[in-house]
Structure formats: structure tokens, C-alpha cells
Amino acid sequence: IRRHNLHPDTVAREREEREVGRRQRETKATMGEARNMLALLLCAAGIYGAYLTQGYLQEMITTANYAPDSARLPHLGMLHGLQSFVCFFSAAIVNLLLSRGKAPKAQPTPLLEYMKPAVTNTVGPALGILALKNIPYSSQVLVKSCKLVPVMIMGTIFGKKRYSSKEYLCVALICVGLVIFSLKKSSAANKKLAEPNLLLGYSLCMVNLAFDGFTNAYQDKINTTYKATSSIDMMCWMNFWTGSFLSVYMFGISSVGYELVAFLLSHPKSLLDVLTFCLCGALGQLFIFLTINKFGALTLTLVTTTRKFFSILISSVVLGSTLVGQQWLGVGLLFTGLIWNMQIKSSKKSKVK
Q1: Which residue, among 229, 199, 54, has the nearest Cα to 125 in the 3D structure?
Q2: Nearest CA-CA partner of 172 in 199, 153, 154
Q3: DSSP secondary structure of 35-46
Q4: Angstrom distance (rounded) from CA 231 to CA 195
Q5: pLDDT of residue 176
Q6: What is the pLDDT of residue 53?
Q7: 3-state secondary structure 52-97
Q8: Cβ(307)–Cβ(47) under 8 Å?
Q9: Residue 272: which residues within 8 A CB-CB, separation 6 or more?
Q10: pLDDT at position 197, please?
Q11: How many Cα atoms are found within 13 Å in the side-chain-facing hemisphere of 138?
């Protein structure tokens, strides 16, 4: 049937149907974008809420004098072991719920593979927490934000990678920012420390960074070798091994676990703080898993990087670890370098696509 032979009413009705269909598609696309934006806001709010609260609690736990005898929490590094078990059980429950009714994975990652990076994941973060006896929380956050520096240095030396001049400039900004921050001390922040020692605190954080670098590299290797590995699998079994290693040390090799439990039971406020700290860590990791799966690693990096800035802000404003002007300049330079580096990575990915 030729279109010029169609009745005018038929042509008008077809045109109206096409217009209705177009509007429906536009509405559906708009609703899809709105749902994605809402999901992103919820993920970001979850990460911010969990980790800002955990950061607040971490600084408070490491500097508080708990009643009734004004004692400080012993064996701070073991907090990482307690958190690992909470994270393991949380991830295991989520994994069971997600796998219900699904066929087993074609090539699951052997559990022993997770054990290797879990060794460095056991020691590294524990040293990072231990450093809070020697340096303020804001200093620890800044040093741990510099993970990009050892990654690029190791990549250049051992991986024979080549980076652009802009990326090297980003690293220079980060290093200069950290140096400017470190050269100026805040007396208000240092007064709260158990054992102020700038060199020891920064050294512990640097070792933490180096161990984190190995952990992340091995996790990338697992993801490349075993394609079926999900973020929730990684969270579950990494925390299982980490918690297991620390448990052997805490309750087998030494008695620090018994001492820590005895302190928590005799100081109820510390028990509440530590439980909340662990739950926040587990909740934050679950939101990270959700963000990676729905929006990708770059979005996650942006959320977590900006979250660290607000952690420093809360530490300074709420907890009274006041920073001086020179330190805020260092913070600004460091985060400028980090965000600029993310923008460079985003541009590279767009060109590849």
C-alpha cells in the first residue's frame, strides 16, 4: 500500500502513535537516568556516612581515655582483626543471598589464592592504625591518600610503564602538598597523641602504603586470572584470611587478644565504640562493592578521595585536631593533584572508547 493512498485520518493516527512512542522512550530514558543518579547518591551517601563515622570513631578510640580508670585502648593494631571478621560475615551473608538460585561459577578462585595478598593486608592496615599513636589522624589520612606515588614509581622502575608529563606533575603536586603539610606541626592535634613521634608514625604509614601496593597488585592479578571473581568474593575471602591470621597471633602466639577482650568488657563505652567502628567498616565495604559493580572504579575513586578530604575536615572542626594555615595549603595541593590525576585517567578512558 502506497502512503499517498492512505486516508488522512490514518496518516494522522500513525504520526500521533509515533509521537506517543517517542515521548514514552524519552520518559523511560529520563526515569532511567534519574534512577541511576539516585543510586549513585545513595552509594556515595553510604560510603561517606560509613567511613566518615568510622574515621571519627577511629580518631576518638585512639585518643580517648575510657572510664572508670581513664585508660587508653591497648593493642590498637588488633582493631583491624576485629573489623575483618565483621566484614567477612557481612560479605558472606550478602554472597549467599546473591548466589541463591544461580549456577555455580565456572572457574571460582581457589581460596588459597586469597591467602597471599591477605598476608600484606593483615600487616599493612594494622600498622596504619598503630601509627595513630604517633601522628594525628589527618596526617595518616594524607599519607594514605598518596598511594598513587609508589604505584607510579614502581610502575616506572619495574613495570617499564611510561606516564605523561601531566601525570608526573600530579605526583609532584601530591608530594609537595605532603611535605608542606608535614613541615608544620599542630600543637592542638599533637597534645591528644599517646606517643607523639613524627618519624615513626610516617614510617609506619609508608610501610602500610607499600603493603597496600602489593595487596592491590595481587588482587588485580586474581581478577585477571579468574574472571568470575566479584568484588564481594574478594571482600569475603580476603577478610576471612586476614581475620584468621590475626586471630592466630592474638589468641595463639600471644595473649593480646585476651587482654583486648578483657579491656572491652571492663570498659563498656570502648566496646560500643569498637563495635560501631567495625560495623561502619563492613557497611562501607559493601557500598564500595555496590558502587564498583554499578558505576565503575573511577567513580568509586572520586567518591573515596573526596571523602578523605571531609575526614580531615571533621577531624579538624569536630574533634579539635586543628590544622594551621600551612597545613591546609598542603591539603589543598595534595587533593588538587589527586583529582587532576582522576580527570586525566577519565580522559584517557574516553579516548579509548
Answers
A1: 54
A2: 153
A3: HHHHHHHHHHHH
A4: 37
A5: 85
A6: 92
A7: HHHHHHHHHHHHCCECCCCECCCCHHHHHHHHHHHHHHHHHHHHHH
A8: yes
A9: none
A10: 85
A11: 31
Q: For residue 38, what are the contacts with CB-CB under 8 A and spacing of at least 6?
A: none
How far is residue 243's CA from residue 245's CA, in Å, rounded to a whole number?
A: 6
| Per-residue confidence (pLDDT) for residue 105, from 0 to 100 | 67
Residues 6+ apart with CB under 8 A from 198: 134, 135, 182, 185
| Threshold 0.90, pTM exceeds | no
> Could you give the CA distance from residue 69 to residue 122 in angstroms, rounded to a whole number?
31
Residue 164 near residue 33, CB atoms below 8 Å: no
Q: In the chain, at which residue ranges do the beta strands (DSSP E only) sit?
A: none
Which 3 state secondary structure label does DSSP give 274? helix
Strand residues in 39-165 grouped as ranges (E):
none
Question: 346 and 166 in contact (C-beta within 8 Å)?
Answer: no
Parts of the chain with a pLDDT under 50 = 1-2
If DSSP codes are grouped into helix, strand and coil, which group holds residue 325? helix
3-state secondary structure of 66: strand
Q: What is the largest CA-CA distance in the chain?
A: 96
Q: Is 305 exposed, middle or buried (0-12, 13-18, 19+ CB in 10 A)?
A: middle
pLDDT of res. 1: 44
CA distances from 187 to 136, 176, 178, 314, 327 (A): 10, 22, 18, 17, 12
The whole-angstrom separation of Cα 147 and Cα 158 is 17
What is the Cα–Cα distance from 36 to 39, expressed in whole angstroms?
Answer: 5
